[in-house]
Amino acid sequence: MSLIQKSLKRVLKATAMVAAMAFVTTSATADDTVYRLKLAETWGPNFPIFGDATKNMAKMAEEMSNGRLQIRIDSANKHKAPLGVFDMVKSGQYDMGHSASYYWKGKVPNTLYFTSMPFGMLPTEQYAWFYYGGGMELMEKVYSPHNLLSFPGGNTDTQMGGWFQKEIKSVDDLQGLKMRIPGFAGEILAELGAKPTNIAPGELYTSLERRTIDALEWVGPSLDLRMGFHKIAPYYYTGWHEPGTELQFLINKRAWDRLPDDLKAILQVAMKTAAYDMYTQSKHESGKNWASIQSEYPDVQVKDFPPEVISALREANERLLKVHAEKDALAKEIQESQANYIEQVRPWSNISHRAYLNSQAQQ
Amino acid sequence: MSLIQKSLKRVLKATAMVAAMAFVTTSATADDTVYRLKLAETWGPNFPIFGDATKNMAKMAEEMSNGRLQIRIDSANKHKAPLGVFDMVKSGQYDMGHSASYYWKGKVPNTLYFTSMPFGMLPTEQYAWFYYGGGMELMEKVYSPHNLLSFPGGNTDTQMGGWFQKEIKSVDDLQGLKMRIPGFAGEILAELGAKPTNIAPGELYTSLERRTIDALEWVGPSLDLRMGFHKIAPYYYTGWHEPGTELQFLINKRAWDRLPDDLKAILQVAMKTAAYDMYTQSKHESGKNWASIQSEYPDVQVKDFPPEVISALREANERLLKVHAEKDALAKEIQESQANYIEQVRPWSNISHRAYLNSQAQQ
């Protein structure tokens, strides 16, 4: 090999090295890798508000990451397991989930506390508990043994007490009352002699119309309007059992750990914002839909449960909670944290929002 | 030049081109450029809650952008112009601002409507108006002629009516009342015979203690506690004049246009989240501080203004608003949008939060 040939070879080698170094620099500083996460949601495709929250989250993540974080959303029609989200994310079959924490209480009893509790917090009171009052840390204690991260996933606003065919004037009127009301609230009503039942959403309208059931609860005007219950039930009761229902984003911890720090930050902020946005949207949709119900069905009567009924429900709630707390130290810790937080924040809610709304309603 | 020399030269040229191309590729796909924005805030350094919102926003932007978006925050001690933020951002002296829209009403009257209006919306009602009820579009109409973008910047929660030395039992008690209450609310009180004054924050405590003034309003327990007014005034009145005070992020439009799309998305989401977070933090701090005032100063009495006084304030408010609407078509459009939105959302707030808080307070 001549000297000239050697020089040429060195130059060519240098060329390749410079080019390689340049690309290494690119990938080390900016990390152009596209991360793809799969999310399973409990809801069907295009489910209003709940489904908007996952789409909003995925869109923010994609735009903020310049396409480096892609989240594919599978609705229940695709994965066929609306109440299998916890297991599918835990096992890694999905990286993320969008659901509600209290759906998992049969599996992990302490997941009950992170959606909304009877006689519990209003939406922003609860956000304050999550982010400033120790709620996130307690939620982590419950979820981390399952290799899961859990974050607030969007608020429905205060849920209504439900649609009733008959007026509830006393605790006696709850005796034998057939009501679609699932979960912990159903257990409370059962304590007072009601007969809570669970019925598939598609059969609710007919069941209420034909008096197979006497009452049902769904969400609030935001989602009740399209179910049509206002056409067939005269009484709409105000809420007690879910004052601030918060949905949930779940993440598999291994999928989370694989993300670079900037995408972790993007994902966390996208989830937080989508959750807050869903509360804002729920407020808007409930306002709009309640106005529409009132104008088209002016005979619908809004009723508060009598104080005697509320007291009885509250006592039953406390009895049931006590059973949980006696069996489980972490349940006790969470219950106490929530009770103490309400004791701290509620007097403020009373001299601010309650005073203002009462004063304005008098005018 | 020999053939060999020519070959070498071509190879060296190719080397340079490959290297250059590699770097061009880096900057085109990932854009490692660091964008530095300067933000002027109306508040002093380390001002609680308000100042936390700007720090929170800048931190999220930095983390999500992997350091590509750096926001330097200058507090009022640095730029010396707390009420010059609008002009400094408009001129491009600063890229961003954090302040409150109603501070600019002397300059641009229609900026009045985007903070909180007397007898107006609660915080989440107002977020719903901004994001789903046309509020953002109206705010853009007001700010875009000034080359500015404006976004919600954090909520203080419902402001209290203020600290009073004397009880207000009738409209007559407002005659000659010397009260520190700036802005539009002060104009309303003046209509009813009160003497609104403005006093520097550092002199408020002494003025109220020595009865140079009879009353003052500040914010709510979140920020009132450290001012110490509860030590020297017996009555704390509930709110009417700022039910949901929202601060503001301002951006110079040229500075905004220079950002690549992903950093625009990051900045917009960081501002939105910091605003929502500030509302959550305000709820927490007011709850905590009100609990502390109640336990240390149990003699502080919370009072509602009598319905007769509220009616008179409301009528004065409507008279003053009408004057604005008659002079300015956009003022009329904004006023109508807000009034219609309250008419739509408030019945929902009443059957949800009001019903719930009243029912819980009876127990």
TrEMBL record, chains A, B:
Any Pfam family hit: DctP
Family annotation (InterPro entries): DctP_fam (IPR018389), SBP_TakP-like (IPR026289), TRAP_DctP_sf (IPR038404)
UniProtKB keywords: Coiled coil, Signal
Signal peptide residues on this chain, from the entry's feature table: 1-30
Acyltransferase is among the record's keywords: no
KW Coiled coil (keyword) present: yes
Name the UniProt record assigns to this protein: ABC transporter substrate-binding protein
Coiled coil: 313-340
